DNA sequence: TAACCCATCTTTTTT
DNA sequence: AGATGGGTTA
């Protein structure tokens, strides 16, 4: 057992270190503004500290104040603090807020950034130690997949049967877990390419080295290698970093964790801030376990819980806390608020007939609020999956309601931007094969697949990049005259542009490249609707280059910072996924689509069982806790998924909300909701006859939850996943179906069909006309 | 080489 | 439904 202190509601203990420290000098006002727990988190500067910061408890404030405190007390210089975040946005915001506290000296914080940007910085300094040149290129996902495709084909494997995307997922997974090829456990690649996955991983890494390139995963992996194989280098960083801080610690994957641990071995002054209840990125390698094992890895760690919530009303907090209490794998925090909120409203739960009505009803609510003087900027619609956004967009367009979609394809991922960047890359980094391949025939120059293959063969046989192969081949007779001319012209152009690199302004050069290559013209000729937008984006790209010193500086930046501020100042409702809502807050939050299968998402359940369910529940928790004043949850009885209508069962998460903090809104519209008997054209169903939410509160699941809650007990722990899944099905279905496999049934909408499978009250029916669908038994009748 | 047709897939997203 | 990608055809 390690000596760790778990401090739940501390104040400076009389005579304690903090109290003495405080007594010694006047309390700086930035510290005085903190509550006791926050203050402890700020003032416990030395040794390992884990801050468990619930939603809305001032996490960022603690981090920024802690840094300010380290600087103000002279414990460290700005350049001696390592502060890591996950996103550029978070890093920017942190820099900004520290700047507010300490002024311009924040500029000296050279080591505040994302895991990746700091990883690159370190790697560039020591690149040759891991077999790279310091000018290495960083490949994005797209390049990565194209390269893997080549590797798969080079191995003579059928790329159709074993898609590069799948291999990429596999390799990414390994890299997330910090595994180089030789560390991959045998059999871990599954049946991919008949067990050749690791071989492909090796081949891929070799190709990367030849190209002098790294993918995102390598940035950390190569750091690990560097630190392990060169203790002197690691030691240098131990000396450099006096204090380390980590934001969103619950999102770290194993590689990031190992990286942190290596660095923290030096001075052991590491402070991680996170919330296990907000871990929603398990599917991309985040390990909540990193939080759970912190005390083991750092004996003597101080654990501080921030549970005082400053964001939400007591009803919202009550609803969210009760929901998340259904999770077993958590450290457990109880959020509370001291806000005196007499006008606090309960969380509303409403239903609708289908997604269109859902959008219509939410649109009305938004307009109501707007009429009452609320700003659209203070409202958000948070969806589980992005396809849900469409019905809202459609509706808001007809209403003329301003909205903004957050997320979606990012600026630097657009085709025209990537093409333009590829041109710049070939100019700046002549051996960038992937970039060259991308644009060699864009616009069309008559250099087709055959010619490119020829370049590859030539290049591979001689071990030279294809750009160089192109240079050499145009001197020979091996290429058809027409192609040869085209290629020679292109190579000459690149040579010409390269010559201008550094002699004229890089933005000007960029324009010249796009014009002379015919790329701009290609879009000008394009008659499709989005061509003008693409030209606009290209202009925007060049405008944004202006902020950089040089072409190389710009390319370095965009490889890592694939986001762009779209600071729209217009008043608009935000529409985004629950994932991208993490860290944000709004007065009013709408949470549509709380239906089994969508939320929790069926795939999360299928692929990850209980862990998947718990992650979905955390997502629900994140959703509710985004709301400051009003949260309203919606459920649609019918939804069109992949083009076909599906009837839905309300999400089990609805069952898990506490009645005390929830208002079930009776559907009174005449569009045909739940309890409008017989209006819907789906014919009789149990949904038509009774208010499901009245039923909801008497389901076994709900009662069990209430009982557990009352007893103060966590739901009984189950170690057997199968059993738990069985329980979940029972929970979601309620009663057993009295249909039998093979039985012929009739559905109001889909017609006749035969039952293929039964799962609780969900039937898989092969309809004669409509195909095979999953339906709830109450929607069909015996024939 | 470009147009066209068919099969396939469809959660969440950062770097 | 709708986008995407690959293979086939003119």
UniProtKB/TrEMBL annotation:
Annotated coiled-coil segments of the chain: none
Ligand binding (ATP): 53-60
Residues covered by the UvrD-like helicase C-terminal domain: 314-583
Homology family: Belongs to the helicase family. UvrD subfamily.
PANTHER family linked: ATP-DEPENDENT DNA HELICASE SRS2, UVRD / RECB / PCRA DNA HELICASE FAMILY MEMBER
Domain UvrD-like helicase ATP-binding intervals: 32-313
PROSITE patterns, per the entry: UVRD_HELICASE_ATP_BIND, UVRD_HELICASE_CTER
Protein keywords: ATP-binding, DNA-binding, Helicase, Hydrolase, Isomerase, Nucleotide-binding
Catalytic activity annotation: ATP + H2O = ADP + phosphate + H(+); Couples ATP hydrolysis with the unwinding of duplex DNA by translocating in the 3'-5' direction
CDD domains registered for this protein in UniProt: DEXQc_UvrD, SF1_C_UvrD
Enzyme kind, highest EC tier: isomerase
GO molecular function list: DNA helicase activity; hydrolase activity
Organism: Kaistia dalseonensis
Gene3D superfamilies: 1.10.10.160, P-loop containing nucleotide triphosphate hydrolases (3.40.50.300), PCRA, domain 4 (1.10.486.10)
InterPro entries tied to this protein: DExx_box_DNA_helicase_dom_sf (IPR013986), DNA_helicase_UvrD-like_C (IPR014017), DNA_helicase_UvrD/REP (IPR000212), P-loop_NTPase (IPR027417), UvrD-like_ATP-bd (IPR014016)
Entry protein name: DNA 3'-5' helicase
